[in-house]
Amino acid sequence: MLATVLHGPGDVRFEEVADPTILKPTDAIIKLSATCICGSDLWPYRGANDITEPQHMGHEYCGVVVEVGSDVKTVKPGQFVVGSFVLSDNTCPHCAHGFQSSCEQREFMTGAQASYARVPLADGTLVATDEMPDENLIPSLLAVSDVLGTGWYAADAARVQPGSTVVVVGDGAVGLMGVLAAKEMGADRIIAMSRHKSRQDLALEYGATDIVAERGEEGIARIKEMTNRIGADSVLECVGTQQSMNQALQVARPGSMIGYVGVPHGVQFDGQNLFFNQVGMLGGPAPVRRFLPHLMDLVLTRKINPGKVFDLTLPLADVAEGYKAMDERRAIKTLLRV
Q1: Strand pairing partners for 335?
Q2: With CB atoms counted within 10 Å of each terminal CB, which end of the chain scores lower, N or C?
Q3: Where are the beta strands (DSSP E) in the chain?
Q4: How many other β-carbons are positioned within 10 Å of the β-carbon of residue 225?
Q5: Is 72 exposed, middle or buried (0-12, 13-18, 19+ CB in 10 A)?
Q6: Rounded to whole angstroms, how far apart are CA atoms 242 and 246?
Q7: What is the CA radius of gyration of the chain?
Q8: How far lies 26's CA from each of 58, 117, 126, 286, in Å?
Q9: Among candidates 176, 305, 178, 310, which has minimal Cα distance to 234?
Q10: Is residue 100 within 8 Å of residue 90, measured between CB atoms?
Q11: Separation between Cα atoms, residue 235 and residue 212, nearest integer Å
């Protein structure tokens, strides 16, 4: 089959690879209904992560099961499924506490920017719908697999409460999903930090009440001014740079929580600042599996529409253009039709 392979910075190819097969009795093979490009895929694409060998790309997925291993019991061929970008058994002690992204058998999904994909630990990772979903729900169900689940985790980790004030640092797809999540959790004021008109518009549609275009010290000062020098009850850090983390720490009020889900690159902390800020922090790779049933239900009942975050749709064969468009910020998130 043809699939997406990253050979080096900026070098994405759609090329022939071996068809996926059942390697372990806990595996499943799915036919992708759609796939997409993640903001985290841009780190190796830009050369921020070392590439020592060709990488099969793609970790966000939904589709129809075509084959299962002998030990798979919870899904079967013909079912439509959504899975987390982190593969888990959903039975170990960490999974039992809702942190499937730290499963004792944890693996990370790869190779989903293709027509077919192998999903290890299928019983613990995949959730099936009762019936085949409408075609127009596919983008939103795909979003559940990572970007919505990650934004939701950021809000959950930041302990967003009804009536609270929330700041979202980052206007990429995850940040926008964080805005959606904060709105669904009942936040009264949601301040989105964004400098890009199209992203500002979508943030407002998803529930942002205020937009702050300034960054760095100017952005911090603006939010302090807007909150009467108090700061936010919850902060969602959805970027992963030193500047974004500094912004998050400085706009969080004492006793608040920061939910950080941006993959960190070059982030360092000052112990004295952490000590005197008195701010809690929880984050890391999102335990999407914990939220899958609830988020899928919200999508299937059309209570939310996270699929709007895909502002560019391309055939899978044009995946290289999708990477380029996101790298150049011409697209928030690219959906790839299989």
Answers
A1: 36, 313
A2: N
A3: 2-8, 11-16, 28-36, 55-56, 61-68, 80-83, 86-87, 107-108, 116-119, 126-128, 165-169, 189-193, 210-212, 232-237, 252-260, 280-283, 312-315, 334-337
A4: 10
A5: buried
A6: 6
A7: 19
A8: 20, 14, 11, 22
A9: 178
A10: yes
A11: 14
Cα–Cα distance measured from residue 220 to residue 231, given in angstroms and rounded to the nearest whole number: 9
Rounded Cα distance between 41 and 12, Å, is: 11
* Max CA separation in the chain (angstroms): 60
Q: Residue written as tokens 């603006």?
A: 222
- Residue 273 sits at φ, ψ, to 5 deg, of -65, -45
What does the pLDDT read at residue 50? 84
How long is the chain?
338
SS3 category, 41: helix
Per-residue confidence (pLDDT) for residue 49, from 0 to 100: 84
The C-alpha atoms of residue 152 and residue 155 are separated, in whole angstroms, by 5
CB within 8 A of 164, min separation 6: which ones? 186, 187, 188, 189, 233, 234
Q: How many CB atoms lie within 10 A of CB 274?
A: 12
Q: Using the CB atoms, write b or e for 243-263: b if 16+ within 10 Å.
A: ebbbbbbbbbbeebbbbbbbb
pLDDT in tens, 78-123: 999 999 999 999 999 999 999 999 999 999 999 999 999 999 999 9
Using alpha carbons, select from 71, 66, 49, 47 the residue that is nearest to residue 1. 66
Residue 199 CB partners (closer than 8 Å, separation 6+): 171, 172, 176, 332
CA neighbor of 209 nearest in space, from 178, 231, 176, 183: 183
Amino acid at 255: G
Query: Which pLDDT does position 48 carry in this prediction?
Result: 86
Residues of the chain scoring pLDDT < 50: none
For residues 261 and 258, give the distance between their C-alpha atoms in angstroms, rounded to a whole number. Answer: 10
